[in-house]
Amino acid sequence: MIRYRPLESYAFVNGDDLNTFVNPGLYSCASAAIAKTLVNCPVNSAFRLEVFYNGPGSGSSTYGFQTIHTINGDSFYKRRFRKTADTAGFLFYDWTVFTASPVA
User: Fold this and answer.
1) Is 61 helix (H, G, I), strand (E, B) or coil?
2) pLDDT digits (tens, 9 = 90+) for 46-80
3) Global pTM?
4) Which helix (H) or strand (E) element contains residue 69?
């Protein structure tokens, strides 16, 4: 089931699938125990998920982004997803990890 929610906060529960969180909003995972049960989740620790759209793409495509901010702040993960008029669901791209580096 796709989660359509108004822009609001939501706390993940055991077994949630990140591919169902496509509505713009802020979502939180309070513990590693919950994170380890999530489907399509690249992290095993507490985090916040931000979902947003950058507007319609070319033709009838719609593009969105999911960004995971780890609680310890040392990295974040980002991936893109899209929905087109000719598909029944969303196509999710691979997660990309960005790791913080100290500035000299």
Assistant:
1) coil
2) 999 999 887 655 555 678 999 999 988 778 999 99
3) 0.81
4) strand 62-70
